[in-house]
Fold Elongation factor P.
Amino acid sequence: MPKINGNEIRPGNILEHNGGLWAAVKVDHVKPGKGGAFAQVELKNLRNGSKLNERFRSADKVERVRLEQKDQQFLFETDGMLTFMDSETFDQIALPAELLGERRPFLQDGMTVHIEYFGEEALNVSLPQKVTCKVVETEPVVKGQTAANSFKPALLDNGVRVMVPPFVAQDEDIIVNTETMEYSERA
Protein backbone atom coordinates (compact mmCIF):
# COMPACT_ATOMS: atom_id res chain seq x y z
CA MET A 1 0.00 0.00 0.00
CA PRO A 2 1.32 3.47 -0.83
CA LYS A 3 2.41 5.73 1.99
CA ILE A 4 1.64 9.43 1.66
CA ASN A 5 2.79 12.47 3.63
CA GLY A 6 0.47 13.96 6.23
CA ASN A 7 -0.01 17.13 4.17
CA GLU A 8 -1.19 15.13 1.10
CA ILE A 9 -4.36 13.85 2.82
CA ARG A 10 -7.53 14.94 0.98
CA PRO A 11 -11.22 14.56 1.90
CA GLY A 12 -12.48 11.17 0.73
CA ASN A 13 -9.09 9.43 1.13
CA ILE A 14 -9.20 6.08 2.94
CA LEU A 15 -6.35 5.69 5.44
CA GLU A 16 -5.05 2.87 7.61
CA HIS A 17 -4.38 4.52 10.99
CA ASN A 18 -4.10 3.11 14.54
CA GLY A 19 -5.02 -0.36 13.26
CA GLY A 20 -8.33 0.75 11.72
CA LEU A 21 -9.69 1.92 8.37
CA TRP A 22 -10.63 5.59 8.36
CA ALA A 23 -12.17 7.93 5.76
CA ALA A 24 -10.93 11.52 5.78
CA VAL A 25 -14.10 13.62 6.14
CA LYS A 26 -12.66 17.11 6.61
CA VAL A 27 -9.10 18.37 6.13
CA ASP A 28 -7.87 21.79 7.32
CA HIS A 29 -4.31 22.86 6.60
CA VAL A 30 -3.07 24.95 9.55
CA LYS A 31 0.01 27.15 9.46
CA PRO A 32 0.54 28.48 12.99
CA GLY A 33 2.76 31.50 13.63
CA LYS A 34 5.15 29.34 15.64
CA GLY A 35 6.16 25.82 14.68
CA GLY A 36 5.61 23.78 11.55
CA ALA A 37 2.45 23.51 9.46
CA PHE A 38 0.12 20.54 9.90
CA ALA A 39 -3.12 19.08 8.57
CA GLN A 40 -6.03 18.86 11.04
CA VAL A 41 -7.99 15.85 9.76
CA GLU A 42 -11.44 14.66 10.83
CA LEU A 43 -11.56 10.88 10.36
CA LYS A 44 -14.55 8.51 10.35
CA ASN A 45 -14.07 4.82 11.10
CA LEU A 46 -15.44 2.70 8.25
CA ARG A 47 -16.16 -0.29 10.50
CA ASN A 48 -17.99 1.24 13.46
CA GLY A 49 -18.72 4.85 12.41
CA SER A 50 -16.78 6.50 15.27
CA LYS A 51 -15.06 9.83 14.62
CA LEU A 52 -11.55 11.01 15.44
CA ASN A 53 -9.69 14.31 15.03
CA GLU A 54 -6.00 13.88 14.30
CA ARG A 55 -3.06 16.14 13.45
CA PHE A 56 -0.65 15.08 10.73
CA ARG A 57 2.61 16.95 10.10
CA SER A 58 4.12 16.86 6.62
CA ALA A 59 6.84 14.48 7.90
CA ASP A 60 4.23 11.96 9.15
CA LYS A 61 3.64 9.03 6.82
CA VAL A 62 0.21 7.37 6.59
CA GLU A 63 -0.92 4.42 4.50
CA ARG A 64 -3.51 5.24 1.88
CA VAL A 65 -5.87 2.36 1.12
CA ARG A 66 -7.65 1.81 -2.16
CA LEU A 67 -11.05 0.14 -1.87
CA GLU A 68 -12.29 -2.11 -4.64
CA GLN A 69 -15.72 -1.14 -5.97
CA LYS A 70 -18.08 -3.74 -7.39
CA ASP A 71 -21.54 -3.35 -8.88
CA GLN A 72 -23.87 -5.88 -7.32
CA GLN A 73 -27.58 -6.59 -7.69
CA PHE A 74 -29.93 -6.73 -4.68
CA LEU A 75 -31.83 -10.03 -4.53
CA PHE A 76 -33.73 -10.34 -1.21
CA GLU A 77 -33.72 -9.71 2.55
CA THR A 78 -33.98 -12.33 5.30
CA ASP A 79 -33.60 -11.81 9.07
CA GLY A 80 -31.97 -8.37 8.72
CA MET A 81 -29.44 -9.60 6.14
CA LEU A 82 -29.45 -8.26 2.58
CA THR A 83 -28.36 -10.66 -0.17
CA PHE A 84 -26.53 -9.25 -3.20
CA MET A 85 -25.23 -10.98 -6.35
CA ASP A 86 -22.09 -10.04 -8.27
CA SER A 87 -23.23 -9.29 -11.84
CA GLU A 88 -20.02 -10.74 -13.35
CA THR A 89 -19.23 -13.85 -11.27
CA PHE A 90 -22.79 -14.49 -9.95
CA ASP A 91 -21.33 -14.96 -6.42
CA GLN A 92 -23.77 -14.07 -3.65
CA ILE A 93 -22.95 -12.12 -0.48
CA ALA A 94 -25.12 -11.40 2.59
CA LEU A 95 -24.59 -8.08 4.37
CA PRO A 96 -26.32 -6.61 7.46
CA ALA A 97 -29.13 -4.14 6.64
CA GLU A 98 -27.57 -1.63 9.10
CA LEU A 99 -24.89 -0.94 6.46
CA LEU A 100 -27.48 1.17 4.58
CA GLY A 101 -28.83 2.95 7.66
CA GLU A 102 -31.79 5.28 7.03
CA ARG A 103 -31.50 4.79 3.24
CA ARG A 104 -32.59 1.12 3.58
CA PRO A 105 -36.24 1.74 2.48
CA PHE A 106 -35.02 3.00 -0.92
CA LEU A 107 -33.37 -0.35 -1.77
CA GLN A 108 -35.63 -2.03 -4.35
CA ASP A 109 -35.71 -5.59 -5.76
CA GLY A 110 -33.24 -6.03 -8.60
CA MET A 111 -31.53 -2.66 -7.92
CA THR A 112 -27.82 -2.43 -8.79
CA VAL A 113 -25.70 -0.89 -6.01
CA HIS A 114 -21.98 -0.11 -5.55
CA ILE A 115 -20.31 -2.08 -2.76
CA GLU A 116 -16.82 -1.06 -1.57
CA TYR A 117 -14.52 -3.87 -0.46
CA PHE A 118 -11.30 -3.92 1.52
CA GLY A 119 -9.96 -7.34 0.61
CA GLU A 120 -12.96 -9.60 1.22
CA GLU A 121 -14.64 -7.28 3.75
CA ALA A 122 -17.58 -5.17 2.52
CA LEU A 123 -17.41 -1.72 4.13
CA ASN A 124 -19.97 0.46 2.35
CA VAL A 125 -23.05 0.18 0.13
CA SER A 126 -23.99 3.10 -2.17
CA LEU A 127 -27.47 3.31 -3.68
CA PRO A 128 -28.14 5.02 -7.01
CA GLN A 129 -28.48 8.77 -6.42
CA LYS A 130 -32.08 8.91 -7.70
CA VAL A 131 -34.84 6.35 -7.10
CA THR A 132 -38.43 6.29 -8.41
CA CYS A 133 -41.14 5.90 -5.74
CA LYS A 134 -44.95 6.04 -5.77
CA VAL A 135 -46.88 8.51 -3.61
CA VAL A 136 -49.50 6.48 -1.68
CA GLU A 137 -50.91 9.24 0.52
CA THR A 138 -50.89 13.04 0.30
CA GLU A 139 -53.26 15.99 0.56
CA PRO A 140 -55.36 16.68 -2.57
CA VAL A 141 -54.28 19.33 -5.07
CA VAL A 142 -55.79 22.74 -4.22
CA LYS A 143 -56.39 25.10 -7.16
CA GLY A 144 -54.67 28.44 -6.85
CA GLN A 145 -52.15 27.18 -4.30
CA THR A 146 -49.04 28.38 -6.12
CA ALA A 147 -47.18 30.19 -3.35
CA ALA A 148 -43.43 29.92 -3.77
CA ASN A 149 -41.74 27.12 -1.82
CA SER A 150 -44.96 25.67 -0.39
CA PHE A 151 -44.56 21.93 0.15
CA LYS A 152 -46.90 19.30 1.58
CA PRO A 153 -46.10 15.97 3.28
CA ALA A 154 -46.44 12.74 1.28
CA LEU A 155 -46.13 9.07 2.25
CA LEU A 156 -44.28 6.90 -0.27
CA ASP A 157 -44.85 3.22 -1.10
CA ASN A 158 -41.71 2.32 0.94
CA GLY A 159 -43.04 3.98 4.12
CA VAL A 160 -40.82 7.07 3.97
CA ARG A 161 -42.34 10.55 4.42
CA VAL A 162 -41.04 13.34 2.15
CA MET A 163 -42.14 16.88 1.37
CA VAL A 164 -43.49 17.34 -2.18
CA PRO A 165 -44.69 20.35 -4.21
CA PRO A 166 -48.45 21.05 -4.12
CA PHE A 167 -49.04 19.79 -7.70
CA VAL A 168 -47.99 16.19 -6.87
CA ALA A 169 -51.06 13.97 -6.48
CA GLN A 170 -51.70 10.58 -4.88
CA ASP A 171 -50.66 7.47 -6.93
CA GLU A 172 -48.12 9.57 -8.84
CA ASP A 173 -44.52 8.43 -9.39
CA ILE A 174 -41.80 10.80 -8.20
CA ILE A 175 -38.00 10.68 -8.17
CA VAL A 176 -36.33 10.94 -4.74
CA ASN A 177 -32.68 11.82 -4.10
CA THR A 178 -31.33 9.01 -1.86
CA GLU A 179 -28.49 11.14 -0.42
CA THR A 180 -30.69 13.98 0.86
CA MET A 181 -33.90 11.88 1.07
CA GLU A 182 -35.85 14.73 -0.60
CA TYR A 183 -38.18 15.10 -3.57
CA SER A 184 -36.23 15.69 -6.80
CA GLU A 185 -38.72 15.68 -9.71
CA ARG A 186 -41.72 13.95 -11.26
CA ALA A 187 -41.05 10.57 -12.84
About this structure: The two ends are 44 Å apart (CA to CA). The chain has three domains: 3-65, 68-126, 130-186.
